[in-house]
Design brief:
CATH class: Mainly Alpha
Number of strands: 0
Distance between the termini: 61 Å
Radius of gyration: 22 Å
Helix content: over 70%
Length: 474
Amino acid sequence: MDNIRLIIVIGYFAIIFGIGFYASRFVKSSTDFLLAGRKLGLLLTTATLAATHFGGGFVMGGGQDGYNFGLSGIYYAAGTGLGLIFLGLIAAKPLRKLSLFTITDYLEMRYNSKIVRVMGALLSLVAIVGIVAAQVGATRGALTILGVSPEAGAVVATILFIAYTAFAGMWGVTLTDSIQLIIIFIGLPVAAVLGMQQAGGWAAMQQTIAALPIEGGADAYFSFGGRGIPIMLGVITPVIMYDLIGQDFYQRLFSAKDENTARNGALLAGVLLLVFGIFPVMGGMAARAIFGEIPATASALPMLISEVLPVGLGAIVVAAILAAVMSTADSLLIAGTSHVTNDFYVKLINPEIADDTKKILAISRLWTVILGIAALFFALAMPGIISVLIFSYTMYASGVFVPVVLGILWKGGTEMGAITAIIAGSIAGLAGLQGWVSYGDVPNIAAAGAISLVVYVVVSLFTPKPEIPEELKA
């Protein structure tokens, strides 16, 4: 039985690699590799934005939180959807019209400062490697029902998404994201609904789970507010803040054919995530009703799939989970490559190469491989999925959120305001995460962001304002 599942998943891997290899024919320049030639229409823009979030945290982490906490496991998914909606409303149009490569291009343009660019790019790169590692780690739980060593499976999956990303860049990422999203949108609802049927339906699930030793009790388990407002904000806030500054999302906006496509794609993707976010959670809850207490809660969804679905359908749904993980991993990988190639090599180390698109393309492919391998090593030693994601989001967004978002909304921000805000916010975020200070019920990222905001405004009021380019004044 495991062999049948394994053959189906291998077949899926082969198809995805084939699509990525096919997409490589569209890559003639570094712009094609990093931004799909800025030619994505609404459907592809929406699909790749949604797929970027529909990964290990959303699917495997959502299933794990659904198993552990019930309906309040929806918090992470809610944050992803709301974040993309805010991105569409606030930043998509004004930044897409600038025809940039990275979000840190905007930071340098806005503050006339290479220091701000470098600080933002370094923090973003650290976050990206951490988030890719979380996706690689999620494959370990997904592959348990195939009889494959989790470590071996993680290595194989990583090699695959590194390969097709290095071959075809953003074109390969976008086309494979679209295929993977279709599989996910079919597979996850099927698994969740059949799992609930196996558990006897909603009322039977409530009775079964009420008899288990549930932390907080069954009433909290079946309530969206079961974990309380502080935890809700502690999960949702970092995700929303990251969405508004994440290079992986801006790369998709910059790849859209125009600013209206970028805006509408972000809004539609946000709605899709809000709608589909309930299914991993419901699957995790069904798994708890069926299996009771299990030691490895990250395997809740794979166990459900193994027990309640026919062999062939189960393999397809496993492929859907792997698709979700890989769609996020490849998106982040190409985003990290953009930082290394554009922000460090072209803009700082070797500006003379800016017109040599073939050499930039070769460098981009090399760094795609290097970053993927770094994430793999990190993943093999990582703890829980959601915890790594929240750590990565917090470290980046605590410092960079205010200079990006207030840079758009307020023209009074200065270079020194941005530099000190990044330093203060990042230190405050790290201090909260490490337990060096306590912010009480206030989420670490919100407290650190507030500190960053105060520093940004105060320092900006007392330092010379930069010359803001005309295109940013519109």
